[in-house]
């Protein structure tokens, strides 16, 4: 069943990113949604079932809105081609539909809850692979998107992604708000430079995968369990600090590269004030990344903790985790080649 779900995910993504017709793109998105549902609900826990239900309802509503927008466009213009979306109402509806699928503010409420109810590996899929088809549709229709609405949502996402993550103790929720913040950075530049959006997305996927795989190795789901994880693999916990700071976008780590290039591109386009605002808003996110890094390396848990003691049992770290962490920390010097 897991193999069928994963193959369906690959099929749905491939159909969406390679289609020219709106009906095919919608079909790919629906296959993706139906394929991820068994993976979310697999633990048979009430939270997992709740997460799967929320995910299904939101994605079905967004897909319906997307189909409605392209049908409206076909009614007025006679075009079903993805790149020929010209009717203003259709453009507005499409921007809303894809933003809902991605989890941009103000359509973000479902994402932290769904990620919190999923396992770490399913959460990794939701935060990375499931974002790829909607972002591809954004890239294909970028000339006809409602840019004012998109810019407002991007800045709001960068602000809320940092602000809402401040008072969280669940690591998956923190990473969900981190994803919302990074999506804001991707969508602010999507009209001007497609390659920059894709570089930002690929680097975000790489850094997020490194963190999720590290958390899976140390079995950390909360800040308190992260504090005690140093007893298992001390070196991995120390490197986790650098990985988190890279995701925050601190130089000279890899995560600084997309933010640097996006600010540079926005300045070239004469949007200096927008670049300044979004750069300042990223400082909010930096605070909770620093808190995570602090918990991972410096603090010790209280002795009267109400969680199970964790002992140094598993010392093996797979090659993929090691490779991703290395790239997450050291890729900035190679940026001219990228």
TrEMBL record:
Belongs to the complex I subunit 2 family. It is an enzyme of class 7 (translocase). Residues 286-338 form the NADH dehydrogenase subunit 2 C-terminal domain. It is found in: Mitochondrion inner membrane. It holds the Pfam family Proton_antipo_M. Its EC number is 7.1.1.2. The chain crosses the membrane at residues 56-77, 89-111, 147-167, 174-192, 198-215, 236-257, 277-296, 317-335. Its main location: mitochondrion. One of its GO terms (biological process) is mitochondrial electron transport, NADH to ubiquinone. One of its GO terms (molecular function) is NADH dehydrogenase (ubiquinone) activity. Keywords: Electron transport, Membrane, Mitochondrion, Mitochondrion inner membrane, NAD, Respiratory chain, Signal, Translocase, Transmembrane, Transmembrane helix, Transport, Ubiquinone. Core subunit of the mitochondrial membrane respiratory chain NADH dehydrogenase (Complex I) which catalyzes electron transfer from NADH through the respiratory chain, using ubiquinone as an electron acceptor. Essential for the catalytic activity and assembly of complex I. This is NADH-ubiquinone oxidoreductase chain 2. The lineage of its organism: Eukaryota, Metazoa, Chordata, Craniata, Vertebrata. Residues 19-284 form the NADH:quinone oxidoreductase/Mrp antiporter transmembrane domain. Residues 1-19 form the signal peptide. GO terms for cellular component: mitochondrial inner membrane. It catalyses: a ubiquinone + NADH + 5 H(+)(in) = a ubiquinol + NAD(+) + 4 H(+)(out). It comes from Xiphorhynchus pardalotus. The keyword Electron transport applies. It is a multi-pass membrane protein.
